Automatic annotation (TrEMBL):
InterPro entries: RmlC-like_jellyroll, RmlC_Cupin_sf, UGlyAH_Cupin_dom. Residues 170-240 form the (S)-ureidoglycine aminohydrolase cupin domain. It comes from the Bacteria. This is DUF861 domain-containing protein. It comes from Ramlibacter henchirensis.
């Protein structure tokens, strides 16, 4: 998994639109690794270096997974998904709810009717922190650094984050973030980032002059190094999963 799954021309890959409109992103039906429990249902929009991928999955049924083969951040966009880790109470994920399934977790996955979720998955060499970690829309926010001053086209925003999952070895983090409105230049994105917007809207400007607009309920993935700008005029909140790839 050391090369992108396909050549992409769109910098910000839209994985899902909350209004039900189709997305321009191309998906390929493929498993994420040899032991992917969602091998038959996986739809991959992007797969790149260091074993990271993002996409959508539709699922109905029940799966027993003795050891989850990778780390996966997912957010339900349609239906209801139940994740029951061994020794823990079941976690019921409805619309716009998400969680991180850590590599090595023993769990049961259930969907009584069709469920659709967006996701960002990361290969792992060995389990680091087994279990299921919920993402929290009502987060325990702490102040976080704004974008560098030299990238801003206006006042610095007030940013906050609630990082609930970290794999230091893989440089992978997931949680909730919010910010007041701000405008940033088009610059290479510093990390791989999956995002599901919970509030507000963002205009992502691309180097070719095109703009991708995302609103609450939409999900996107931006690969590290792709040139992209940011413009928001209101509070934006999002679930995120990010990974920094070292050269």
């Amino acid at each position: 998994m050391d090369t992108p799954i396909a050549t992409r021309t769109t910098v910000a890959l839209v994985l899902h639109r909350a209004d039900g409109n189709p997305v321009a992103t191309e998906f390929q039906r493929a498993a994420f690794g040899r032991k992917d429990p969602f091998a038959r249902q996986r739809e991959i929009a992007w797969e790149g270096p260091k074993g990271i991928a993002a996409g959508c999955t539709s699922f109905i049924g029940e799966l027993e997974v003795a050891s989850f083969p990778h780390t996966e951040t997912l957010v339900v966009v349609e239906g209801e998904l139940i994740l029951a880790a061994e020794g823990a109470n079941p976690l019921v994920l409805g619309h716009d709810a998400g969680a991180v399934i850590a590599c090595g977790t023993s769990l049961r996955i259930q969907a009584a009717s069709r469920v659709r979720f967006v996701w960002c998955a990361l290969e792992c060499e060995r389990p680091v922190r087994a279990g299921i970690t919920p993402l929290r829309a009502e987060a325990d926010f702490e102040p976080s650094a704004p974008p560098p001053a030299h990238t801003l086209l206006g006042p610095a925003p007030q940013c906050r984050s609630d990082n609930v999952f970290t794999d230091e070895q893989a440089q992978y983090r997931a949680g909730t973030w919010d910010s007041t409105g701000y405008h940033r230049i088009v610059r290479p994105h510093p990390l791989n980032e999956f995002m599901h917007l919970l509030a507000g809207s963002v205009r992502f400007a691309c180097a070719d002059g095109s703009v991708v607009t995302a609103r609450a309920g939409d999900a996107l993935f931006v690969p590290q190094g792709e040139p992209v700008g940011w413009e928001s005029s209101e509070r934006v909140a999002k679930f995120y999963a990010v990974q920094t790839v070292q050269d």
